[in-house]
Design a protein that fits this description.
It is built from 19 helices and 11 strands. With 448 residues, the protein is of the alpha+beta class. It folds into 3 domains: 87 residues, Phosphorylase Kinase, domain 1 (2-Layer Sandwich); 157 residues, Transferase(Phosphotransferase) domain 1 (Transferase(Phosphotransferase), domain 1, Orthogonal Bundle); 186 residues, Leucine-rich Repeat Variant (Alpha Horseshoe). Bound molecules: adenosine-5'-diphosphate and magnesium ion. The site of magnesium ion (MG) has 4 residues, from loops. The site of magnesium ion has 4 residues, from loops.
Length: 448
């Protein structure tokens, strides 16, 4: 390749630094602004240049990009639709690279860091939607970091409508977007894409930011914002957030919940306590909502702590099993916060019994080692703090059950962490009744 000046202004470097299926991107020197960072020219590759379909699609891409202006959309410095050498488009060089490069460099991002990116990208997508444009190819290679702002780029699949975007009708081009980021309806046919298909892709982008992996599957149960991601990427479009901005709002509410008014907290607590006492199994969606609500409560505030205790007091073994199935992480958070809340509340010894029943039910209802440890620790601490023998009896029942090695260790750890070993075995006969190896391990703990 020899040096080439395009549009009497841009000097092409010899080799493209990026290439997609149809296009190539080059750093170019701008003879009109030699001091600027060399911008980027996008052109069709030689093969696609001779192809009428790609030719006219690229021209449309250029027209679309040139028709919009927003801080979160890649700007256009210059373009020519009719250059004899083929249409071209020049944009500033995004020195931060694309989102895929960024994630490769920084690894999976925290919820707050990915929210920052989501805000930018969503603002750009909301803006083009107001201009009746669908992007239809939001993917890590098409989101770029330019002067500290994330911008959407590559309008190769974008569709401009005469009508507001949500009333899309027929349109068809080949290629349907980037697989793992593309909504099911858009995979069926590009023409079925609506603004909600872009919301889906944003959800997948958001998942990708936090996992650093291709979002081929639903987000795992350990991803903090999985509920918001699942909603954005719901199979049926009407179940998704109604717009990019609403998706952002949902994420913001999940990360930084608004302060609650005390009256609504106690009303909710009353409602959930009633639901739990009336039913041994809540519907999954209610269970998830209740867990979310519970772990968002601030147990350092008296009113919220009381609400939290009132609800947790109604949890049975069945409920708890359900809670762990819906969201194991939040269920465990709720259980260990329950321990703190009861200890902080210091409501007196006769308020220890109901929580003790709950911890005992949680411990015996499953074979999860972490839950067993929390329950044993909580029973010992709450029992010790109130000198409540009811708690000792519950502990004794738990210890007496046959247990795998992992659970034995969990119970030893729990008791050790409680700092109440001596109180628990003040009556030596309790220790003597226990099966080995637990008896031996506890005896060692007592001596140590
Ligand atoms: N203005 C730019 N600044 C920096 N890199 C860019 C720019 N435009 C494109 N690129 C890089 O080239 C890649 C391909 O560009 P893109 O417009 O997405 O073309 P394609 O249609 O081939 O996917 C992008 O993923 C990005 O890494
Ligand atoms: Mg691209």
């Amino acid at each position: 390749m020899t040096e080439l000046i395009v549009g009497e202004r841009f000097v092409l470097s010899s080799y493209p630094f990026g290439a997609g299926a149809f296009g190539e991107v080059f750093r170019v020197q701008d003879l009109q602004r030699p001091d600027d960072h060399d911008p980027v020219m996008k052109r069709l590759n030689d093969e696609s240049a001779g192809h009428p379909f790609h030719f006219s699609r690229f021209r449309r891409e250029i027209r679309t990009m040139a028709s919009v202006e927003h801080v979160n959309v890649m700007p256009v410095i210059a373009y020519d639709l009719d250059d004899p050498l083929g249409p071209w488009l020049v944009s500033p060089f995004a020195d931060g690279g694309n989102l895929a490069d960024y994630i490769t460099l920084h690894g999976p991002l925290s919820p707050d860091d990915s929210l920052k990116i989501l805000r930018d990208v969503a603002a750009g997508v909301d803006y083009i939607h107001t201009r009746a444009i669908l992007h239809r190819d939001l993917s890590p290679g098409n989101v770029l970091l330019l002067n500290g702002h994330w911008v959407i780029s590559d309008f190769g699949l974008a569709h401009v409508s005469e009508q507001p975007v949500s009333f899309q009708t027929s349109y068809s081009v080949t290629g349907y977007g980037t697989t793992d980021f593309c909504s099911p309806e858009q995979k069926q046919s590009l023409a079925s894409a609506t603004a909600l298909s872009d919301v889906y892709s944003l959800g997948k982008l958001f998942q990708y930011m936090q996992t650093g992996a291709s979002p081929a599957h639903e987000p795992g149960s350990d991803l903090p914002l999985r509920f918001e991601i699942r909603k954005a990427t719901a199979t049926s479009p009407q179940d998704r957030y109604g717009s990019p901005a609403l998706f952002v709002d949902g994420v913001v509410a999940a990360i930084h919940p608004a302060p609650r008014d005390p009256e609504s907290v106690s009303d909710m607590a009353e409602q959930y306590a009633e639901d739990l006492s009336e039913s041994s199994a809540l519907p999954t969606s209610d269970t998830a909502a209740m867990l979310g609500w519970l772990v968002d409560l601030d147990i350092k505030k008296v009113g919220e702590r009381d609400a939290f205790i009132d609800v947790m007091n109604q949890v049975t073994g069945n409920h708890f099993e359900r809670l762990t199935k819906v969201d194991r992480e939040r269920a465990m958070t709720a259980l260990s916060r329950f321990e703190e809340a009861v200890l902080d509340a210091d409501r007196g010894f006769n308020h220890a019994d109901q929580p003790a029943r709950v911890f005992a039910a949680a411990a015996t209802g499953n074979t999860d080692a972490t839950i067993r440890k929390i329950a044993v620790r909580a029973l010992a601490r709450i029992g010790g703090a109130n000198n409540r023998w009811f708690c000792l009896d519950r502990l004794q029942e738990i210890f007496a059950r046959p247990a795998a090695d992992e659970l034995v260790s969990a119970m030893v750890d729990g008791l050790k962490e409680s700092g109440e070993v001596r109180w628990v075995f003040q009556d030596n006969s309790r220790l003597e009744q226990l099966p080995n190896p637990l008896r031996g391990r506890f005896r060692a703990l007592l001596k140590g």
